Amino acid sequence: MEYDFEDAVALLARTPATLDAFLRHLPESWTRSNEGAKTWSVFDILGHLIHGERTDWMPRARMILQFGESKAFEPFDRLAQERDSQGKSLADLLDQFALLRTESLDQLRDLNLRPADLARHGRHPALGVVTLSQLLAAWTAHDLTHLHQISRVMAHQYREAVGPWGKYLGVLQCAGHSSPA
Q1: pLDDT at 80
Q2: Which of 46, 74, 139, 177 is the most interior residue, by most CB within 10 Å?
Q3: Residue 6 burial by Cβ neighbours in a 10 Å radius (0-12, 13-18, 19+)
């Protein structure tokens, strides 16, 4: 499937409501547990998504449009949520993510991107030359990656409780997800 702006925005717009419906009011045993040392909980993943809204997707899109390949993106701090989410509740993070995502998509729509804009190049500090459409497609796949990760982290909490059914539950067989950009 090739990148389609309207299809991508339709998915990106649904992520906050999906997370809200799935996670709000769950006990912390579901949202604060992880898969072991140096892994993220649902709370951490949500903090990561918030940090991406602030510092990654739209700032990088604007950089591509303003500077092209002449200026590399700022490196992304994959652990910023550890400090940024301190003292907040899951409800706070869900509300913040929904607000930031709405603002991001409003800004994206306001760019009135044309096919020539989507083909414009930028420079990722590790990946090299990328296009705006690749960045926007990655944003969409990034949401799906973390929706998958949230399901996997939560299912992990019952890995022993399911007993022999574990061998039939694909979410318990998944070894992880790709490294985020």
Answers
A1: 84
A2: 46
A3: exposed
